[in-house]
Amino acid sequence: MVRKIPVRFAPGPVSSGDFRMSNNKKIGVIGLGAMGAGVALSLLRRGFTVHAADTRREALDRFAEAGGVPAADPAALGAECDVILVQVVNAAQTEQVLFGEKGAVSTLKPGSLVIGCATVSPEFAESVDARLHNAGLFFLDAPMSGGAAKAASGEMTLMTSGAPEAQALAADILPAIAGTVYRVGDRAGTGSKIKIVNQLLAGVHIAAAAEAMALAIREGGDPRTAYEIITNSAGNSWMFENRVPHILSGDYTPLSAVDIFVKDLGLVLDTGGRTKFPLPLAAAAHQQFLAASAAGFGREDDSAVIKMFPGIDLPHAGQTGR
User: Does the keyword Membrane apply (predicted)?
Assistant: First the structure.
C-alpha cells in the first residue's frame, strides 16, 4: 500500500539563525550538482552536520562557505557519516561512488544507511540493495522529483522503497529535503519504477512544449504571448511552464541537460522492452533528445531540444520582446 507522508518546512536560504532543529547525525551528500547542492543546503538548514564529496573544487568551496564539511572523496565521507545520500546522475556514477576506488562502502560503518536518489533502472536499485545488505548496510531507493528550485527549498517529492529498517533510519532525514514523501514498497526498486513513469511524462512534456513553441514561432506568433496564454489554458503542463522560460530568455545553461533525457527515456524504453510493452510517445520524444544530443546540444538545458526544429528564429539571450 502506498503511503503519502506530507512534510512541511518554510523555504529559505541557509543562515546562522535559520536552523529549525538540532540533530547529531552526520549526513553525507555525494554530488553537489543542481539537485545535490540544494539537498545539502536543506540539510544544513535543519541543523544536521553535513559532509559532501564532489569532483569540482568550486562546488566544495561554495558548500564550505555555507557551513558544510568538504570531503576529499566518497571514502573519506563514508568514514565520517551515519547516512549518505547519493546525488549523482546515473547508475554508472552510483556504482563508482559506492563501490569503486575510494568508494564510500569501503569505509561506512555496519548499520549505516545509503539513500540512492539517482534515476536508475529498478534492477540496478535491487542489485545495490543486495550488495549493501551483504556489507551489513541498509539501502533506501529514493528517487526524487521537483527540480533545482524545490531541492534548494527542501520541497522535493520523494518516491521511496526499501526495508522497514531503512525507512526508519531515514525518518528524520527525509522531511528535511522533501515536501512530500511517498512510501511505495518494502523492496528497493519500486521507487525507481515510479520515477521511470514520471520521467516518461517529463520527457514527453518537454518535447511537446518545444514542439508547441516551435510551431507558435513558425506561425509568426510572439513567443512570450504564446507562453502567457498557454500557461493560463488547458494545454499547460508543469514542464511547459518551467522550461519554456529558458527558451524565451535564450539561456540554455543546464539545470537538467538534454543528455539526462537521452538516458532517462532510454530507461523508460528499456523497461517497456523487457515486457514487450509499446511506448510510442516515449519513443518519439527519445528520438528528439537523441537528435539534439547528436547535433551538439547534449550538455545544454533539456529545453534546447527546440533547436532541432528548422526555419524558426529563436529568442536569444538579452532579448526582451518584440
Answer: yes
What is the tens place of the pLDDT at every residue in 52-64?
Answer: 999 999 999 999 9
The β-bridge partners of 160 are 183
Find out whether 39 and 63 touch, Cβ atoms under 8 Å. Answer: no
Burial (Cβ within 10 Å: 0-12, 13-18, ≥19) of residue 19: middle
What is the CATH T-level fold of the domain 194-308, as seen in this structure? Answer: N-(1-d-carboxylethyl)-l-norvaline Dehydrogenase; domain 2 (1.10.1040)
CA-angle at 76, arms to 139 and 113, nearest 5°: 15
**Could you tell me if 208 and 41 are in contact, meaning their C-beta atoms sit under 8 angstroms apart?**
no
Q: Which CATH number fits domain 3-188: 3.30.420.40, 3.75.10.10, 3.40.50.150, 3.40.50.720?
A: 3.40.50.720
Question: Ramachandran region of residue 301, left (φ > 0), alpha (ψ -120 to 50) or beta?
Answer: beta
Query: In the prediction, which pLDDT does 149 show?
Result: 86
- Close Cβ partners of 304 (under 8 Å, ≥ 6 residues apart): 252, 258, 292, 297
Higher pLDDT, 21 or 49: 49
Q: Percent of the chain at pLDDT above 70?
A: 91
Spatial distance between the Cα atoms of 49 and 17, rounded to a whole number of angstroms: 15
Rounded to an integer, the average pLDDT of 140-148 is 94
Angle, vertex CA 120, rays to CA 115 and CA 124, nearest 5 = 85
Catalytic residue check, 195? yes
Run of H or E including 231? none
Among candidate residues 150, 193, 195, 263, the one labeled active-site is 195
